[in-house]
Amino acid sequence: EKNGITNSPYRHLYVKAYETWKTTWKGILEKAGCPQVFQVEDFYRQDKISLILHKNEVVGLMLHTYFDLKNPVIYDMRYFSIFGEWAMQNIKKHGDNGVMTMEYLMVLPEWRKCGGDFSFADVLAGLAFELMRHENAGICLGVAIKAAHVDEIAERLKCQILDKGVKRGNFVCDIVSQTPKNMATHPNEDIQMFTEALWMNRSHSNYN
Fold this sequence. Notes:
Blueprint: H1 11-31, H2 40-44, E1 48-54, E2 57-64, E3 66-67, H3 85-94, E4 99-107, H4 120-134, E5 139-145, H5 150-156, E6 160-168, E7 171-178, H6 189-200
Parallel strand pairs: 4-5
Antiparallel strand pairs: 1-2, 2-4, 3-4, 5-7, 6-7
Helix pairs in contact: 4-6
């Protein structure tokens, strides 16, 4: 969480996550021909960061914002600008306890191929759903970039597709969701067990 970061003992991890996110996503978006999509505010507004580390170096991360659907301001925010009417109606059905996002999923290149079918991206998605349940959010949302096969991760974890083929920048995406009630275990037992172990042994920083 970002509140109180200045005096937090976790400040170095927050800065490390930011620098990794900035370098990676700025490069991805420039290469895709849509550098205008990169906005530092997208990192700053995040309420939580899911971060996997190995020897204090970043393996991968995902960002999370909590939205209160009762606040009319959020419907004019850039994040929801690509959500169609049908998707928003479905979100409202489950959003009484708030909405949690899954954003900017990334795994560093040296950790993307770990042998067999193991995937740190799938682990981060599983951790996001555990966080959703832990925080009592009503629904978890993601904008899944198809070129990066994030839509396939969503399919493996039994997410609901709220909208297909929407554009964010130059990327074709699916809007996907998951609810605590419909959470599914990962079909790969090793990934499921690793996700559960990370969640049980997580370090949680709260700066409030």
